[in-house]
Structures are given as C-alpha cells and as structure tokens.
C-alpha cells in the first residue's frame, strides 16, 4: 500500500486525512494453499514422519503467511494465529488447563499430550507410539468439541475444575512472535481473551462457574503479555468475541477487572480488543470504557453499530473497522465501502482508524487464483483470503491517496457487483413462483406422532433398543483413488459404478453379519454430505481448492450458493434402491436437510437466508417424495447444523428457529404415516432450542452425546420429548475404540433420562472419516452393548 500523500483530488476522499491508513488482518488460514498442514499432521499421526518434520512444515506455513500478507499490503500482521489443531486448545495448553487424565505433570507440554486432548489416545499403542514420539499411552477420550460461536469451525472445550490452578505451560505466542521478528516481521500477537476463554469452558463440578477462576488465570496472562512486551511487541490482539453475546453483570465485571489488571501491569503495551460475529449492542458501554488502546468492530454482521460507537468511544481509542467479510466469499463493492468509510475517517481521523476483515480469515479459502475451472462470471463475483487482503489494501490506498489512485480497481469492483445483481444465472422465475405458493399445510404430517409410531412399529417390528448408524462408512484410500480416477477419465462410468456397487454390497453384508437392525448403504458415491446434493441442484457451484478448516485436519470445501435452487431429477433414489435390493432389513435413505445445506455453504448475500432455505427445502421435498414412491420406509434428513445457525443474541432466536423448523417440515411432511422420518444433529447444546427440536416432529432424532456423557439428554428429559432418540454412544471424531462396558454405562445413563421405548443405539455421527480398523470393532461392541441392554429388566 502506498504511503505517499496526495494533493487534493476530485473524489470525496479529499475530505479525509491524507495519512496512511493501517490495514490489518486478525488471523489468516493456517492450512496451506495445498493443504500442507493436513498432510503433515496425518503423516505424523500415522507414524510416517516425526515431530521435527511436522514442526518444519508448520514453520514454513507461518513464514509464507507473513510474507504473503506483507506483499499484499497488510501493515498490521498477526502472529500466533497458527495452530496445529485449534486456538482454544492452544490456550488451554498455554495456561496449563490440562485435565489430570492426560497425565501432564508440569513442564513443557509434549505434543503427544496436546494431540491426546484433541483426538484421544489408545493404551495399546503406548509402547510403540511413544517410542516414536507419536502416542500418549493414556487410552483416554478427547476433550469435548463444539462449534465456535455460530460458525462451522469446531473448538476443543476447556475442561476446568473448582480447584483449577493455572501456570504458563506453553510459550507458543512468544515463540511465534520471536520467530516472525527474526524473519523481519513486526507482528501483532493474537490471544484469546481470558473472559472469552472462561466463558467457553465447562466444568464437571456441579454448580461451578468457570468465570469464577478469573483471578487465578489473570497472572498467567500478565506473564505472557509481559514476555511479549519484553520481546518487542507494541500491540497485542486480545480476542473477546463474548462481547457480542448476552452478558450478565458478572461477565461485564470480569472484563473490567481483566483489562484494568492488564493496564496497570503493562501501561505501555497496546491492546487491540477484538470482537466479531455480531454487534456490541448492550455491551457497548462496557467495551468502550475498558482501558485498551484499540477496539475492533464487526461491521459486516452489525454495520449500524458504528454510529453508536463513534458517539461513545473516547478520544484516542483506535477503532478497527471490520469492513471486509471474513466469513463469506463474495467480492466487495469497494466504492460503496469507501462511501461508508470516508465519513468515519473524516470524523475520527486517519490515525485513529484501522481497516480489516470482520473476523479472522480462517473461515474462508486461501486463494481464488487456484480455481481455474470456475464459471468466469461467478469467479468474477468472488474473493478468497488473498483477494480480501488485496481489497483491504485497495481501500487503504484509496483512503490515503484518493480514489483516483486506484480508479481502475474501483471501476472493476463496481462493474462486477452490477453484473452479479443482474445475472440470469442468479435468478429463476419458476423457483420464485413456487416459493410464493408455499402454505402452512405443506409442513404438516398426516397424523400425530403417537399414531405414526404405532403404525411404524407394526411395519418394521424392530427389537427394543434398535441399532443403526448415522449414514456414512469409511472413505478409504481405494474409494478416494477411484473417485479421482473417474474424475480425470481414467476410470469409466461403468467401472466406477461397479466399484461403488461392490463397496456398498460388502458393507451391507457386513452390517447384517454383526447384527445391526437398520442398515445404511455407506454413501461411497458421495464426496461430501452437502457437496453431493449441491452438485445436483441448480444454484450451486463448487471449487477445487476452496478448503477451510472444520477441526484439526478435517477440512471442507463449502459449496457456493450463488443463485435460485431447484432439483432437475432424483438424486439418491437409484443408490437407495440398489442397496435395499441387497437385504430384507430396513435400509435408511440418507439426505442432507435444507438448514444444514444452507449453513454449510457460502450463502448468497443478496436475499434473506430464510428465502434461500425455503428454496432448498422444496428441492429436498421432491427427493423425499420420490424415495417414498420407490419404497423407502425410513428416510433420514440430517440437520447436523441446525443449532449452529442460531443467532448469538437470544432476542433473534425465534425468527431463525421459525423459518429453520418450517424448512425442515416442508421437506419432511409429504410422506405417509408409515414412513419413518429420521434426522441427525451434531454438537448441539439442546436445552435452549428443545421446543424447536420438538416442533420439527421427526419420528427419530440421533444426536451427539458421548463426549458430554449423556448430559445433553437432560434437555429431552425436562422437556418430556415424545418422539424417539438415538443418543450417540461413542465418539467418532476420535480413533479410540470404546469397550462394550463403556457404551453400556452410557446407555444406562440414557435410560435414566428417557424411556426404553424412545431409545435407539447409534454412534455420534457418520463414520466417513474413520478407518475400518476402528469402525469394525467399535460397531461390533455397540451391537453387543445393545444386546446386554436388552437383557436387563
């Protein structure tokens, strides 16, 4: 970005200060343009490489990120935004919040302990793995994992106890700041703030609030900040996204105590207090009164908050304006953004303003230039992390030197925005007409659940505690290789179909052999539970390199929902029909629900999310009807992401839940009473949305409960949920194979909360990411646990 000062220009930018505008990022993707981190992690976990190789790959990715940002014109570059697995887990390790089961005795935290917290570990692998630096040897489960605010990123939930102590156990923030400095980059280290860390934590101690640990935690933060300052850090970014939540007086007081402590201990260190994913709302007065040097605002999610902030922010407080969307991939209309920014800078002064993305760019892919096969019009409407940083640099130059200094770029930006708005690729009159004819009757089943349940029990004649899985089975290297060979033309359509049929038949036979009651076909033909459907629906497009991190080494390529959605032909009927022909046992048909497809896509921003969801719901409704007509008696419509779309402010919940539940019912209510509708939900705190789950009126819901030790079922007990439930009895996100007794004990806990007539038995989630060597014994144990339960009174 040019730092030169221009003379008066013809543009409105002449009313702003001619000073250079600071251009910042709050964090960048850490996975690597070619998923280098995934490959390095999985090589290390498998024992194919050592810790030195993993750390060298990580250092290379960090160096490349810093160099890329500087080259693109970013003037405030973050450090410590890299993580091997998750930034919240990094914070737990940093402050020594490591539960006793992981065997840490103090001192430097081994990488094996870190990954045991993230992924669990197996006792039997102890000797060999530890000898090579890979294992942990505890045979312990991973920490609980849940969604990061309302994103599709997962964080590892800190597990704190009443007698918790804290100590500086990892110097990672200091080391990575020093690493950047040695390479010539003066960075702004990033830390999760202490109040947000404690607000995200859980405790197994009844009635204990982790926030009460603040006074024990703050000295560790002071120690970290002091070392950063001593190393040369002028600014530190402390992320407190809890400020966009509904906070009580205790949380607000905790924020005041924390930042007063920092100001008193380190009066010369500048803190950028960072909020994102929403507006400050009633926390604004608290935020602007804290003794910090800067405050970051998400002006994408909450653009109107800037007026109140400008009125209340004290003089000298640097405002970081999150003007570029850090969570979606649409190209910005830069002239419109300048129209918004210029009055703010004129009022506040260029020296008191930074511009940045709304949040960390962790949530978007790295570089649009890698996409060589996208439709040219669509590509012209998109911006990934690299392009977003370029947009920020352009805005910075325009604000400092006038719009004429980047005139061609601004014209191109406005032209792209106008082309997208008018494109016939985006708008379909037939879809709009169908949505306009929606009526409440489309969202109602013929009979109430009790009557449906009686009819379904007579039809299927399942035993007590029926067993099933969530849908997918391992996508092995053979499957991935066959898919890749088919995609490049090296494997014919016929040969590929035969390969998939063989995989399906083998899996169906195996499920029968171990005694599962309700089978699935394994989904070997599906690349991803959302992408598979999006590829067959109008209005969606897909990238080849648009990877974003979901958790650890699990990356996804979210579909791009750019236009009106419709279904041209059946999407799953043929594969369900084939699978059902192989067995006399019930074969569930597997679909992804409209809310999940929406929440796991990069969604268009030119219509309300509710309108886009209803379009998807009608397309899925057509598929449900075709499956039933083909003979499917059980149809599972997964809504794994329903809870994560819940707004962060309670006042906005009902509107979202109304249209989300309506969308599910639109697609699920076109069937007869004897057809059993299943749904599946992941990592959800259900207490606050239990009424909405009941309103979905699915016949059977399966949910994640193993990591929470069935605690999530308390919501269903208190609500007296009438329908049937399959609480997950083992954690599929860990390579651990649970023993029969472990699952039986969980099921006994479930029986304390639910009636026997309600209970199904299944894993937490689909098995796509697991290996057969883990799946076979785990499911065999699950079936054995079900049989033990049936033998109990």
Explain what this protein looks like in three dimensions.
The protein has 793 residues and is α/β, with parallel strands linked by helices. Helices cover 42% and strands 11% of the residues. The chain is built from 28 helices and 20 strands. An eight-stranded parallel sheet has the order 1-10-9-8-7-6-5-2.
Percent strand equals: 5-15%
Q: What is the 3D shape? A: globular
Main sheet record: 8 strands, parallel
The average pLDDT value, as a whole number, equals 92
Structural class: alpha/beta
What is the helix fraction of residues, given as a range?
40-55%
Q: How many domains would you count in the coordinates?
A: 2
Number of DSSP-assigned strands: 20
Low-confidence stretches: 1-18, 124-138
Task: Describe the strand arrangement of the main beta sheet, using strand numbers.
Answer: 1-10-9-8-7-6-5-2
Identify the CATH class of the largest domain. Answer: Alpha Beta
CATH architecture of the largest domain: Alpha-Beta Barrel
CA gyration radius, whole angstroms: 27 Å
């Amino acid at each position: 970005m040019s730092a030169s000062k221009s003379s008066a220009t013809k543009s409105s930018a002449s009313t702003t200060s001619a000073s250079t505008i600071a251009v910042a990022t709050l964090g960048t993707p850490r996975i690597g343009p070619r998923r280098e981190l995934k490959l390095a992690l999985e090589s290390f976990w498998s024992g194919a490489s050592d810790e030195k190789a993993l750390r060298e790959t990580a250092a290379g990715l960090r160096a490349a990120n810093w160099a890329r940002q500087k080259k693109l014109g970013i003037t405030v570059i973050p450090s410590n935004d890299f993580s091997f697995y998750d930034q919240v887990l990094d914070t737990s390790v940093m402050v020594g919040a490591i539960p006793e089961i992981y065997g840490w005795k103090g001192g430097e935290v081994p990488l094996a302990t870190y990954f045991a917290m993230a992924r669990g570990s197996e006792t039997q692998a102890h000797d060999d793995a530890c000898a090579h630096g890979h294992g942990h040897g505890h045979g312990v489960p991973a920490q609980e994992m849940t969604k990061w605010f309302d994103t599709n990123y997962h964080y590892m939930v800190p597990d704190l106890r009443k007698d918790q102590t804290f100590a500086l156990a990892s110097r990672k923030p200091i080391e990575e700041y020093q690493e950047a400095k040695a390479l010539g980059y003066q960075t702004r280290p990033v830390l999760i703030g202490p109040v947000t860390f404690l607000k995200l934590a859980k405790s197994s101690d009844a009635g204990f609030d982790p926030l009460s640990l603040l006074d024990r935690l703050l000295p560790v933060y002071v120690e970290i900040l002091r070392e950063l300052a001593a190393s040369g850090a002028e600014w530190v970014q402390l992320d407190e996204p809890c400020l966009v939540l509904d906070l009580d007086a205790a949380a607000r007081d905790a924020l005041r105590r924390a930042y007063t402590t920092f100001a008193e201990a380190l009066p010369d260190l500048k803190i950028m207090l960072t909020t994102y994913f929403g507006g400050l709302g009633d926390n604004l007065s608290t935020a602007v009164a804290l003794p910090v040097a800067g405050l970051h605002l998400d002006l994408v999610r909450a653009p109107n908050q800037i007026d109140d902030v400008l009125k209340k922010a004290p003089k000298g407080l640097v405002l970081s304006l999150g003007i570029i969307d850090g969570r979606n991939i649409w190209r910005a209309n830069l002239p419109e953004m300048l129209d918004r920014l210029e009055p703010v800078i004129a009022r506040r002064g260029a020296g008191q303003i930074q511009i940045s993305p709304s949040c960390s760019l962790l949530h978007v892919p790295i570089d649009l230039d890698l996409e060589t096969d996208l439709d040219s019009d669509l590509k012209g409407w998109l911006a990934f992390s690299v392009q977003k940083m370029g947009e920020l640099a352009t805005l910075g130059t325009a604000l400092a030197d006038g719009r004429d200094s980047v005139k061609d770029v601004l014209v191109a930006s406005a032209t792209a925005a106008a082309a997208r708005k008018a494109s016939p690729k985006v708008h379909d009159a037939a879809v709009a007409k169908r949505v306009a004819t929606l009526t409440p009757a489309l969202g109602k089943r013929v009979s109430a659940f009790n009557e449906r349940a009686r009819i379904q029990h007579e039809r299927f004649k399942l035993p007590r505690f029926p067993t099933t899985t969530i849908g997918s089975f391992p996508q092995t290297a053979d499957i991935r290789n066959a898919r890749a060979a088919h995609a490049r033309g090296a494997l014919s359509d016929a040969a590929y179909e035969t390969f998939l049929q063989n995989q399906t038949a083998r899996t169906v036979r195996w499920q029968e052999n171990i005694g599962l009651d309700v089978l699935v076909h394994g989904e070997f033909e599906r690349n991803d539970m959302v992408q598979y459907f999006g590829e067959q629906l109008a209005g969606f497009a897909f990238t080849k390199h648009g990877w974003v991190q979901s958790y650890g080494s699990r990356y996804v390529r979210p579909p791009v929902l750019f236009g009106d959605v419709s279904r041209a032909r059946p999407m799953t009927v043929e594969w369900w029909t084939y699978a059902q022909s192989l067995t006399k046992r019930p074969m569930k048909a597997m679909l992804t629900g409209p809310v999940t497809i929406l929440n796991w896509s990069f969604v268009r921003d030119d219509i309300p999310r509710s309108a886009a969801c209803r379009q998807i719901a009608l397309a899925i409704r057509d598929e449900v009807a075709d499956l039933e007509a083909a003979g499917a008696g059980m149809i599972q419509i997964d809504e794994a992401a329903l809870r994560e779309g819940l707004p962060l402010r309670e006042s906005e919940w009902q509107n979202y839940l109304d249209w989300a539940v309506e969308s599910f019912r639109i697609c699920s209510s076109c069937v007869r009473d004897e057809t059993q509708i299943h749904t599946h939900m992941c990592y959800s705190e259900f207490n606050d949305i239990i009424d909405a789950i009941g309103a979905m009126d699915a016949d059977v819901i399966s949910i994640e409960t193993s990591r929470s030790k069935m605690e999530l079922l308390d919501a269903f007990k208190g609500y007296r949920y009438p329908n049937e439930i399959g609480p997950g009895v083992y954690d599929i996100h860990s390579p651990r194979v649970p023993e029969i007794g472990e699952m039986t004990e969980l099921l006994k806990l479930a029986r304390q909360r639910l009636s026997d007539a309600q209970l199904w038995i299944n894993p937490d989630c689909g098995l796509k990411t697991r290996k057969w060597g883990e799946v076979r014994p785990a499911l065999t144990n699950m079936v054995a646990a079900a049989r033990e339960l049936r033998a109990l009174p």
